[in-house]
Amino acid sequence: MKNEQFNNRDVSDSYFLVDIPDYPTDGWGKFTRVVKRTFRGELFVGLWVVLREMIKFDIHTVQYPLEKMPIGPRYRAVHEMKRLWESGTERCIGCGLCEKICISNCIQMDTKIDENSRKEVSEYSINLGRCIFCGYCAEVCPELAITHGGRYENGSEQREHFVMYEDMLTPIDALKAGKQLEFEGFGAITPHEDERVKKTPLSY
Amino acid sequence: MDTAYLIETIIKVVVVLLIFSALAGIGTYFERKVLAFMQRRLGPMYVGPFGLLQVAADGVKLFTKEDIVPTNVVAKVFKIAPVITAATAFMAAAAIPFLPQFTLFGYTVHPIVADINIGILYILGIMGIGLYGPLLGGMASANKFSLLSAARTAAVFISYEVVTGLSLLAPIMMVGSLSLIDFNEYQAGGIGDWIIWSQPVAFVLFWIAAFAETGRTPFHLIANDHEIIDGFGTEYSGMRWGLFFIGEYANMFFISFVIPLIFLGGYGDGSFLGALGLLGKMAFFFFFFLWTRAAWPDVRPDQLMWLCWKVLMPLAVINIVITGLVMMF
Ligand code: SF4
Ligand code: SF4
């Protein structure tokens, strides 16, 4: 199932004005209108339309838990943490921008200096009970590390439902299998960005 | 009255009760499915194969729900009202011959509970009493929307009693009897003998009135869905509400039997094929109830009254006069 068919919202060329005659004022006019409407058989048009749909059996139901509608790449559902394609290490550099920008204060993170003197994320969690899925964190992230994914089914026993860093992080085997999807939505690099980047002129 | 007759009648009553209570349940399944297909949906799918056990699930739900009698309602009347609806629906079935008579183990069975000589009058009368279910239920509910719905119901039922009675008068004049079996005998000669050919106007009028009598969609303002509540049934819950429901569906089935019996030749000559024919015609009329629900909008109460008193009733009277003139000369 594709959602392209829903994208064309321009229906202006199929609009037309319905020809509504003036309401009859005298008794005879009303009478003829009733007779005309009685014998025009418009009721049968309605009957035929629904019967036709029943015979065609063109069912539009999406049987939800078994079937799902595709969602657009810009959909903002539960966050994902990405890995670098080459090395497989985590993209997040622990800069804390996402924590800073989050307007509902739901990102909690802690960092430390690891043995290679690199900054490393030691704690990272998002409180989904507070998150409003605004996408600011994904937009602000300088490394395209935090993005929104397509997992929208996040029912839980309690409102304060957290996602931890490990849950959001692309599993290393999924990355090796090339299954990590790049984010196309809010704040992401547009495709073929390489071709549009100009060299910084160094010689003035 | 001999014992064999008594036992036979009791068995027939039980069979009719059981079959039509079950059919009322299955009727809801068909209604959901047909409506769903007409609206490009699937309808019930999860309980049992193709959702078939949805009926059982609904039954369990209705039976086990808490029976709430709200404060301020007139409890006695409130409790008796759904029983009236269901009971009158089934009482009307007593005079309907559901199948031609057949022989079972050398015993001739008449599949009619009581072939009284005023069959049609009895059915119309009992269906008229059915009005008291919604009326009393709505009035006892201590809820203004129920009360409004009860008032609408009373207006619709009483008005359309007139159309039903008058439209049936012409065929009754032709047959000269009120028994549905006599109606069937009258049309036993085949399709050419069907009363619909000589009384098309009466047929259409009765059919239209049947929608009002059962409160089905073009005239569904009895329990007006647009108020998002269930009309007179708003305060009801559990099996009391279920009785209203069973009554409505049983009424639909009985009317679907009565229309072909009166106008479309019934079970014909009484052969097996004739019996199948009656069931087929019944199925069509029942399907038509569902079909119109998917296709047609509801009318306003004033339009309904207008239709009844200014269109259908004059037509019925004219029809009777013409029938009388034709029969006289
Ligand atoms: S989507 Fe918005 S609310 Fe949710 S974590 Fe990101 S910045 Fe915070
Ligand atoms: S997810 Fe992005 S914005 Fe947040 S700390 Fe990591 S690198 Fe910085």
How would you characterize this protein structure?
The complex is a heterodimer of chains A (204) and B (329). Chain A is of the alpha+beta class and 204 residues long. Chain A is 25% helix and 12% strand. In chain A, the strands form 2 sheets. Chain A has a 3-stranded antiparallel sheet. In chain A, a hairpin with a 5-residue loop joins strand 2 (107-113) and strand 3. The longest helix of chain A is centred in the N-terminal third of the chain and has 15 residues, at 42-56. Chain B has 329 residues and is an all-alpha fold. In chain B, helix 1 crosses helix 10 and helix 6 packs parallel to helix 12 (301-328). The longest helix of chain B is centred in the first third of the chain and has 36 residues, at 3-38. At the A-B interface, helix 2 of A face helix 1 and helix 11 of B.
N-to-C CA distance of chain A: 54 Å
Terminal CA distance of chain B reads: 44 Å
Globally, the shape of chain B reads globular
- Largest sheet strand order of chain B: 1-2
Brief account:
The complex is a heterodimer of chains A (204) and B (329). Chain A is α+β, with helices and mostly antiparallel strands.
Layout of helices and strands:
The complex is a heterodimer of chains A (204) and B (329).
Chain A (H helix, E strand, L loop, with lengths): L26 H14 L1 H15 L22 E3 L15 H5 L5 E7 L5 E9 L8 H5 L5 E3 L13 E3 H4 L3 H5 L16 H4 L8
Antiparallel strand pairs in A: 1-4, 2-3, 3-5
Chain B lengths: L2 H36 L15 H11 L10 H18 L9 E3 L2 E3 L9 H11 L2 H9 L3 H32 L4 H7 L8 H4 L1 H15 L23 H26 L8 H24 L5 H28 L1
Antiparallel strand pairs in B: 1-2
Helix pairs in contact in B: 1-2, 1-10, 1-11, 2-10, 3-4, 3-5, 3-10, 5-6, 6-9, 6-12, 9-10, 10-11
The complex binds iron/sulfur cluster (2 copies).
What are the key terms here?
heterodimer, A: 204 residues, alpha+beta, Alpha-Beta Plaits, 3-stranded antiparallel β-sheet, 7 helices, B: 329 residues, mainly alpha, two-stranded antiparallel sheet, binds iron/sulfur cluster
